[in-house]
């Protein structure tokens, strides 16, 4: 799976609660910026699209 570079979520507060994501053609990965060595969670394209749709429908 070809992946882009990691980027910090716009929903991260800039303090201790930050996550990073990277998208590829088959899905996306998400990791904790303060615990990168612990690995990441991977989501298939359909799962990632559903997650983003749910987040976008919520108010900030």
TrEMBL record:
Residues 5-56 form the DUF397 domain. It comes from the Bacteria. It holds the Pfam family DUF397. This is DUF397 domain-containing protein.
